[in-house]
Give the backbone structure.
Amino acid sequence: MDFDNPGFRLLNLLEQGKKIPANKVCRDAWSELLDAPVTSPQLLGRLGKIMELVAIVETEIREAYPDEASTCEHWTSQVKAAFMHQQLQGQWDTFIAHIDGHSINYLRMQARMLQTLSNAKSVEYEVLEQSRNDLSDILNELLASEIDFEVKKYLSRNIRGLIAAIDEYKLTGTTGLFDSIEILVGHSFFDSKYKKSIKETKIGQKIINTIGLLADAMTIATGLPQIGGAIYNLIALSQK
């Protein structure tokens, strides 16, 4: 499964959803699919990202394959109807019943069509897991440190953002990772204290090393050296 292909990301979620019993509580089903606690704000946030994902796939298909507009219309209308009619406190059937076999087949076909435009693969799970663990350790070390309070606040927020992007990789792909890295490193252009902490502290070096690991994995997965290069250039600029 290529999680850098938005069509396959959406297809994977819907196919996994078809395996969940129709009488399960809808909110519990989403919690299972999205790895988010039922009562957490993350659940609704990730639901929103799935809805955005539908729009992303639709746009990419219509732009790359205009003749597929009618086929695209069928599955997108069904998925949108599913979101409109679902009852989070009701049964899963209020959502998944709208996702018919034709919708799955059309989406699978169009995901494959998008794949012909890219040779991307998924970032290795082991790298994502290692990066997440390293970032969690860095966050704990940061919170226990005597770094300036304002710097600590921004750094901890941005590290949590990158951890969230790793957790949501199956929803946002490498775009989510890159955006979070850009925010984490890019803040140094506007905050000299933040820049100094990234550049001159052991915690900062650990952050850079972890980001480098992710950059290498993203480069391998996407086959686009400019992704890794862009991250390394951003890091280099932030340390001048």
